[in-house]
Amino acid sequence: MEKMSRVTTALGGSTLTGRTMHCHLDAPANAISVCRDAAQVVVAGRSIFKIYSIEEEQFVEKLNLRVGRKPSLNLSCADVVWHQMDENLLATAATNGVVVTWNLGRPSRNKQDQLFTEHKRTVNKVCFHPTEAHVLLSGSQDGFMKCFDLRRKDSVSTFSGQSESVRDVQFSIRDYFTFASTFENGNVQLWDIRRPDRCERMFTAHNGPVFCCDWHPEDRGWLATGGRDKMVKVWDMTTHRAKEMHCVQTIASVARVKWRPECRHHLATCSMMVDHNIYVWDVRRPFVPAAMFEEHRDVTTGIAWRHPHDPSFLLSGSKDSSLCQHLFRDASQPVERANPEGLCYGLFGDLAFAAKESLVAAESGRKPYPGDRRHPMFFKRKLDPAEPFAGLASSALSVFEMEPGGGGMGWFVDTAERYALTGRPLAELCDHNAKVARELGRNQVAQTWTMLRIIYCSPGLVPSANLNHSVGKGSSCGLPLMNSFNLKDMAPGLGSETRLDRGKGDARSDTALLDSSATLITNEDNEETEGSDVPTDYLLGDAEGEEDELYLLDPEHAHPEEPEYVLPQEAFPLRHEIVDTPPGPEHLQDKADSPHVSGSEADATSLAPMDSSFSLLSVSHALYDSRLPPDFFSVLVRDMLRFYAEQGDVQMAVSVLIVLGERVRKDIDEQTQEHWYTSYIDLLQRFRLWNVSNEVVKLSTSRAISCLNQASTTLHVNCSHCKRPMSSRGWVCDRCHRCASMCAVCHHVVKGLFVWCQGCSHGGHLQHIMKWLEGSSHCPAGCGHLCEYS
Amino acid sequence: MAEGENEVRWDGLCSRDSTTRETALENIRQIILRKTEYLRSVKETPCHPSDGLSNTVSLDGLNKLLAHLLMLSKRCPFKDVREKSEFILKSIQELGIRIPRPLGHGPSRFIPEKEILQVGNEDAQMHALFADSFAALGRLDNITLVMVFHPQYLESFLKTQHYLLQMDGPLPLHYRHYIGIMAAARHQCSYLVNLHVNDFLHVGGDPKWLNGLENAPQKLQNLGELNKVLAHRPWLITKEHIEGLLKAEEHSWSLAELVHAVVLLTHYHSLASFTFGCGISPEIHCDGGHTFRPPSVSNYCICDITNGNHSVDEMQVNSAGNVSVSDSFFEVEALMEKMRQLQECRDEEEASQEEMASRFEIEKRESMFVFSSDDEEVTPARDVSRHFEDTSYGYKDFSRHGMHVPTFRVQDYCWEDHGYSLVNRLYPDVGQLIDEKFHIAYNLTYNTMAMHKDVDTSMLRRAIWNYIHCMFGIRYDDYDYGEINQLLDRSFKVYIKTVVCTPEKVTKRMYDSFWRQFKHSEKVHVNLLLIEARMQAELLYALRAITRYMT
């Protein structure tokens, strides 16, 4: 700030010089205005009203207009304006509703000239006519605007906005008779000064009060407005309807807006609350301000460009009791600190990413994410001298392509549509869903469903044939129950520790099925097992007598008939009662005396060709239900759901949650459930599976979710005769007492689904119309239209 | 008997689907029947001493249920629920169980019940409001029933309150209710405290906190000071208060939380004003809203008599009213005449600047002497007082501090320009909601005054609004405070001042003695102005302090 910079501009002979500087005022300022000669500035506030001359190095107080022993409220200024034609003439708007004019040419100490006390409330704004010497306009909180002729004692005309308080009035610089006014309710009005009865044009510019407006100094049709809704909008007023040309979103409500001289697209703004800086925006680049002045420590209340043809000097007054001159050269430019980056998805899921070259280069040391092919391309950006932000050296563009087929979400849609979640016994639901998953090639999921069925369905209900193929015959001996559970190895170590437990003399088979990544481990396991390694077989059993049968059965059932059935489920029926059934799965895994582990490498790889990142281990375990109630597994099931959710397959987690209902719900905390539900519903809605998502919402037990489809369920209808909204009932109009929607077939009121022809607008009950159009192609109303129903 | 299966779920009744309500009610009926059976069986078997306690506990539980049912039968906006719950009560009575009956009449002690809209007679718009309110809270409170005189305002009020208590916001739900309790307790408003104690427990609040502020987390305790100052002397709030809350290490508040808390505090301070100002009676299902004693002629309860609902009492009021009928008729006429005069004289009579300035000071000073004569100290009920500390801290007239505290100028910090932006920035959407509420309250008019139609009441409303702000030391540069003296007579000023500053001291006499010819709906309208003006005044001071802290 101490840096001295002299700016010389060619301004019809005179030159402005100066530097960034500020001076302390005695009190907070409310508004400032510059004299025509750009050498003096007036500062007004509640308890300050002074004129400063702008010297090269500093501000010098020239005149204190606040005179008198006991300053009255007339001197408490909300706004001040200096006449642009007459350098002796000033006007102020007082907070008590008085408009005061001041004549600096008066010889006495008191320069007060005239007093207009016509407004009943605070006057927010005063404005001189740009070319007429005696015309003054004021806008007040009471909703009126008044035009004064300074040669007369009272107002010439009064304009009633018919809306709320007036916040700003501005004469058009180009149109002699036009002025714009802005209102607290968001409206902007255009008036002809000769016609006080009604405004020429009115439109709603902002949501909430419009605090300020400014006409473009050159472009006659452009009006900039700023409002409490944190927006600056630029309107083209030359067209029939005011057209929004540009919109700048700021971070706080906009208190003042001023076009920058000689720069067609620049404007300066300051805010009323919270934000103390002054910004200069290029309206074509509405996201990053072109320049920023950060001198003030409290909100800026008044800004003015020092000279109407010099874009480099900006004056500002603030609540922090200081007056500043800002030099454009010293402004900070946020764009210098920004790192422009661009990111865009292509039609086929490709991702393009552009960033500054320096940034990308710094990052190139990192390894690209595996699985993505990366084609970085670098190119030099052409410098466009017209661009305001030119000079950003060059950027790098990287394109990430999707692996073909890898990212397809077809399975998700299919699954969502075909899964059955309710309405049938649990066993059927599980079977159905397992089938769906299998058909889509998602074997792990299919397996999970099957196991869930086995866990949670009481033995009596389980048709043995459904259990799995290898059990088929074996289960004929009556007692045995199969309990399968699916252990996903969160940590790879878990998968390798497939230890299977054997009770003494009992027949139990366990199959470890491990995918390619775990094959080695499987082999180790095999070596550990004592000699019963049967490499080519799908199963190893503690075959006692029925082994043959099983061996025979399995290939028959599993392979020739269902080649797609790739998860060989092996299990052995029990021969003897287990007396000491292990109490828990941990225990189960701890014992390592099972000889019956097999993993077929060839098979394993073929089993899970898609899933390369996780391994699957399935343990079939025969148990008695009297010993192990389903609750026993709830911990496992919970972990399983968590696993799926973490893998990103929240669909599975939610589906299982719904299907199992009460059985698992209590084990998972509400928040997690809610989180899953919302994620799944969000996904479904992205795929436009509205019906499924609604079903899920309906089936959810969490209150937060099930209220989702309770919101905004109202459908507003208008009467087809009088076009008025039908408020009380949807089918009878209160006004014209007619039934609105009659069925063209049965001539009754339609209260449910109404279908109508878009050609002739006749319609009726969905069922009736469908039936009618099966037999006839003409409209049932007899209008002769050939309706189509599809 | 497992408690779990007898846990009554009332939320089903809030559904808009009638079958859901049906099943929910049926469930409740089953539970009540089971409980009744259990009680009867206990009674028949010889009582073990150890059973005695559990017996009373379960009797208590049953009585609570019955009281709730009674509330439903009177106050549920859904007809089917009203009928069914009444039916259940009847059938229980037939089993020989004593059922409760509502104590007192109607939602307000000041307004006769017949003046107030009966649930069931509302029009479509009001029904929608009632249903919304019921769905959100599971009850239709007496405040709503009184406010429904002005449905347009009520809608905005409920929307705001719903947002503050139940929608997205920086504070957890139980904190919100607890802050509501703290704020209401400052004015010893047991009605609001009871209501929110229930809600607080319902959203999972720790019952221990209810034993007093010292049992609540440190963070909430820190808020106590702000609550106290804000309720009674908001002009004393400084940025140091704010700083103290925001920089308290692990107990510190974030700005957004603080704004939420401030909005809640001011909302409940002013709602306490409304509760006392309109004499809201206890909810039917809360303590003091019902009795299990059979009605007997000799046993009229006190509030029945003060209520003006009892027929004998009605006559007294009438006879008292007859005397003053002509008097009060002139009151209205005189008020209208003054308004006309002011309207016309405005331009002629030009008060000097000095005079204008002194008028504000005069009004400020006078408001000090406005207090009603009966200044007896009301000792707060014990259960309420434990929610706040420093009971002695009360309203002190602003003017007594006039020397030290500079007048607050609206032109320098007003809600529309500054307060709104700050609130909306830190607690999105709430600024908008409150802004709407202020607007509706300030601009609400039916252009009627007592028996007169087509009256422009804007001047009167502005006088009331500015008078309240004047009591808080907030000055409008562009207002002539002489108007207040012309328009508001002494009894009205007493009422206003009591409602706004020390609401717990409002009596029925005060309510009756101002504006005697005006309708009850107009008096409620006045109360709406009072509470909104008060809320805005408190908010302005609090937000200004926050703004000062931020800059």
Automatic annotation (TrEMBL), chain A:
Tell me which EC number(s) this protein carries: 2.3.2.27
What are the WD repeat spans here? 116-158, 203-245
Which Pfam families does the entry link to? Answer: WD40
The record's annotation in CDD domains points to: mRING-H2-C3H3C2_WDR24
Report the superkingdom from the record. Eukaryota
The annotated pathway is: Protein modification; protein ubiquitination
Q: In the record, what terms sit under GO molecular function?
A: ubiquitin protein ligase activity; zinc ion binding
Function description: Catalytic component of the GATOR2 complex, a multiprotein complex that acts as an activator of the amino acid-sensing branch of the mTORC1 signaling pathway. The GATOR2 complex indirectly activates mTORC1 through the inhibition of the GATOR1 subcomplex. GATOR2 probably acts as an E3 ubiquitin-protein ligase toward GATOR1. In the presence of abundant amino acids, the GATOR2 complex mediates ubiquitination of the NPRL2 core component of the GATOR1 complex, leading to GATOR1 inactivation. In the absence of amino acids, GATOR2 is inhibited, activating the GATOR1 complex.
PANTHER family attached here?
A: GATOR COMPLEX PROTEIN WDR24
Its quaternary organisation is: Component of the GATOR2 subcomplex, composed of MIOS, SEC13, SEH1L, WDR24 and WDR59. The GATOR2 complex interacts with CASTOR1 and CASTOR2; the interaction is negatively regulated by arginine. The GATOR2 complex interacts with SESN1, SESN2 and SESN3; the interaction is negatively regulated by amino acids. SESN1, SESN2 and SESN3 convey leucine availability via direct interaction with SEH1L and WDR24.
Q: What is this protein called?
A: GATOR2 complex protein WDR24
From TrEMBL, chain B:
- Where found, per UniProt? Cytoplasm
Q: Name one GO biological process term.
A: reactive oxygen species metabolic process
What InterPro entries does UniProt report for this protein, alphabetically?
AhpD-like, Sestrin
Coarse class of the protein's main subcellular location: cytoplasm
Q: GO molecular function: any one?
A: L-leucine binding
This protein's GO CC annotations: cytoplasm; fibrillar center; GATOR2 complex; nucleoplasm
Catalytic reactions on record: a hydroperoxide + L-cysteinyl-[protein] = S-hydroxy-L-cysteinyl-[protein] + an alcohol
Pfam families according to UniProt: PA26
Entry keyword Amino-acid biosynthesis: no
Keywords in UniProt for this one?
Answer: Cytoplasm, Oxidoreductase
Q: Which family does it belong to?
A: Belongs to the sestrin family.
Protein name per Swiss-Prot or TrEMBL:
Sestrin 1
Q: Organism source for this protein?
A: Propithecus coquereli
